[in-house]
Amino acid sequence: MLVAMxxxxxxxxxxxxxxxxxxxxxxxxxxxxxxxxxxxxxRGRVLGILSLHDVARAFPPDVNPLSATAVASGPSRPVxxxxxxxxxxxxxxxxxxxxxxxxxxxxxxxxPVVHGDALVGIITRSDLLKAFSEVxxxxxxxxxxxxxGVRVTFDVSEDEDAVALVLELARTRGMRxxxxxxxxxxxxxxxxxxxxxGAIDDFVDAIWRxxxxxxxxxRT
Length: 220
Prior knowledge:
alpha+beta, four-stranded mixed beta sheet, four-stranded antiparallel beta sheet, 7 helices
């Protein structure tokens, strides 16, 4: 999956000379927790990024930066004084897992998405959670909860084809595979298979008989 599939394209932007108070009002109007600072109005070159926390720290302690009176009573200083300059960016064709890794390593809440020098979107932690929920089969892209099934977690060897194993065992038991993902946890490689319908108990027994340790079985 690519960043372009999950990024938000309706990006609020401000100029570096926009006041902190006006920026807070813009964030409140759109309900955004991050706002991008661009050199030109709209989708220009990215100069910086601001979080709601950055904006709130610039306000007096007794003023709510998201209140209706924030513009009148908030700081008139330009956002270029408090923005994070030269923020990390990604492109639309960046794999979603690379964006997630960058955000975790750098402790970032959002990444502007660029094409060349121009801003085209933003990817946030909430977007990554949506992507993860879709991958593991919790929700669809439209946000609807998938039908009931079972999620089986079991250990696999480092070079084992977990997808092929799950597909074969599920096919012979009349089960439909919703998703299969693998991950490393505490030095061990685990596979997480989500299945719908069919002989669930027989499938779990087959996993054990194939030489794998079943870590958990969760009916969803």
